[in-house]
Amino acid sequence: MDAGATDRPGGTARGRRRGYGLADRLRYRTDRILASSIWVQLAALGLAVALVVLVGGALYVLVEAETLVTAGPFWSAFARVLDGGTMGPDEGLWVRTVSGLVTVGGLFVFGILINVVQNYSQDRLDQLKRGNGPVFEKDFDLVLGWNDRVPAIVEELVASGGKRRPTIVLMSGRPAEDVEADLENRLKARGLLKRVRLVCRTGDPIDAEDLARLHFGRARSIIVLTDDFGTDDRDTADIRAIKVLLAVTKHPDPRMRVRPDASLVVEIDGRHHGPLATAVAGERARIVKSREVIGRLVAHTACQEGLYKAYLRLLDVQIEGSELRILDPLDALVGVRFGDAFLRLQGAIPVGVDPDDGPLVLNPPADSLIARGDRLVVVSGCGDVPLADPPCPDPGVPEAPGGSASAGPVRFLVLGYSASLPLLLAEMDGQVAAGSTVTVLAPDPDRSRAADVAACAEPLHNLQVDFRAGDPSERDELERLAPAGFQSVVVLADDTLGPEAADARTLVVLLQLRGLSRAGRDGPPVTAEILEERNRHLVESESVRDVVVSNRLTSLVMAQFARQKDLGAAWAELLHAGGNNLFLRPFSAYLPAGRHRFAEVMRAAQRRGEIALGCRQPADAPSGSAGAAIHLNPSPSQEFDLLRREGQGDDRVLVLGRARAAGPEP
Predict the structure, then answer these.
(1) 259-270 burial by CB neighbour count: b if 16+ within 10 A, else e?
(2) Comparing C-alpha atoms, which of 136, 314, 138, 289 is closest to residue 221?
(3) Please, which residues have CB within 8 angstroms of residue 560's CB and are 6 or more apart in sequence?
(4) DSSP 436-464
(5) What is d(CA 196, CA 45) in angstroms, rounded to the nearest whole number?
(6) The pTM of the whole model exceeds 0.90
(7) Which residue from 303, 320, 540, 604 could staple onto 431, CB 3.0 to 4.6 Å apart?
């Protein structure tokens, strides 16, 4: 027998020895083609169509001798491949047989083609749902990472977009479908869904290829978050945020460069990595140390009831009449004293100057002159700011009131523990008189918190700290402390728990405090921190004067940095110690009791090197509401009855200025 003979169809001796035959090879080649890209599959199908047409045309030539020298047979074969219905008028057995074979071959090829196109379309849809596609947008806002603050950030970016419908692109390790569903439900509930285009992608922002898919060089703002998806460790999340920052600023593709006019905002949650993030970012990015911001505002609010609401009104652009913004240069104000500019503007209070040739300055001297090209930083509504015609009458500088007694020591009670506690204690120390005390009641299973609090208490000058291990949600623990004997109570959200669990624990503590007082009316004022805005109404009561929603607060700060790059320096100063901050001071430090126009309040504040932004009057708070009413950005001619109010505290003036000596006015 010949060595090349076969003993099975389609096989050879060599194929038999190797265990496969011609059919196996053809099947393997077909599988490789079907597993290839769509372009290879389409090319193979094109060759298959050509083969069917050539074979069919050749058979037509054999059965129709009169068409040997024409192209008719091949065109007829091609027409039958495209449309099997063209075989109807054929005559003759052989012609119909060939037409049937060609038609069946065409149906087979085009059946495969339809399946290939359908599979490709389905794969593309699945890829888009998984968030693996590229992004070809421009002038969009980019959010890298995921945590509980993302929905509030997106809300604020949408609300601050004005009439323009912004595009917001998000990339994180979460499935894009889940991110899109969460955000759409949140935005739909607030009527903002139709005002934004959301583009969600799944990927690792540290990976250069994933970042390149976003074409982030076209973004007008980039927000890098401490991504807590997949990790519960704060230090790990911070380090990851710094790595994302490096990936953005050091991308190997020269086409992927952050625009010079784009805002770059980076969130750092822990205490230890702020200097590292600042060193990596340089002056290019704004670092938001979320725990520091929360701790500082909770401390200031505990010492100055209602201050959180003032900050919130300036940060939240959805609240009309209280936006911090920069005006274009006004020729009519050139040469005017900065302290007189408020009399010449309608619906705005100047708080700073952005000179043409220097850095932005908050609260400049009232005697400084406005130069040509200077832009005013004002608190106003979102509309135009016209010049007052005629200017508001100048009330002159009022007489200084008589001296008031300095504040005595204060007793604080802090219930719970969070990463912001060390900074909260440091901020309280600068706000109170010597001899003040703070008692901290928090769980301490491994005794590490007591050591941390003791280390934080060492550098304090005015505040004595007493840490007690215990569960503040237990009534017995609270009864032993006698909360009614303290002048202010702070309830912190446990940031080691999830948002809902932390807020539920805060609610239990507040209910226990309420139960210890008579109908919740004779206890000390309470400042409560929660994480979710939707839980605010659950904790508000007459005794809870201020509810600090920490997730919303940090989200608003990051959105402001992203949206208003020119105001980054102003917000950085307002939210950090050592510069100009907001204060609620007793009116008696400025004016005697009685009816006064707000222009008089402005002049009295200027005498102290401050800028008056509004007034807080407890008597105006609606019955049963938490806290008092803050009149922000009133007209200079608006009149206020500034009084001492029994049982409600004195009326206060909201001012922009620098911190004074420890021991706030009573």
Answers:
(1) eeebbbbbbbbb
(2) 138
(3) 156, 315, 324, 567, 571
(4) EEEEEEE--TTSHHHHHHHHHHTT-SSEE
(5) 43
(6) no
(7) 303
Between strands 263-268 and 286-289, the pairing is parallel
Whole-angstrom distance between the N-terminal and C-terminal Cα of the chain? 116
Give the list of residues 6+ apart from residue 209 with CB closer than 8 angstroms, or none. none
| 488: helix, strand or coil | strand
Query: How many whole angstroms separate alpha carbon 479 and alpha carbon 513?
Result: 9
**Local structure of 658: helix, strand or coil:** strand
**CB 464 within 8 Å of CB 432:** no
Q: Which two tokens stand for residue 575?
A: 């939210």
Q: Which two tokens stand for residue 230?
A: 């997949």
Which residue is listed with tokens 């802090």? 414
How far is C-alpha 494 from the geometric centre of its chain's CA atoms? 21
Return the H-helix or E-strand segment holding 580.
Answer: strand 580-586
Q: Which two tokens stand for residue 623?
A: 């019955």
Name the strand (E) or helix (H) holding 241: helix 234-249
Amino acid at 444: D
pLDDT, tens digit, for every residue of 117-141?
A: 777 777 776 666 666 788 888 889 9
Task: Count CA atoms within 13 Å of residue 250 on its CB side.
Answer: 10
Q: In the chain, which stretches have pLDDT less than 70? A: 1-21, 24, 26-31, 33-35, 64-71, 83-92, 95-96, 125-131, 161-163, 228-233, 270-271, 317-321, 400, 402-407, 518-522, 541-543, 577, 618-628, 645-649, 660-666
- Residue range 335-373, pLDDT digits in tens: 999 999 988 888 889 999 999 888 899 999 999 999 998
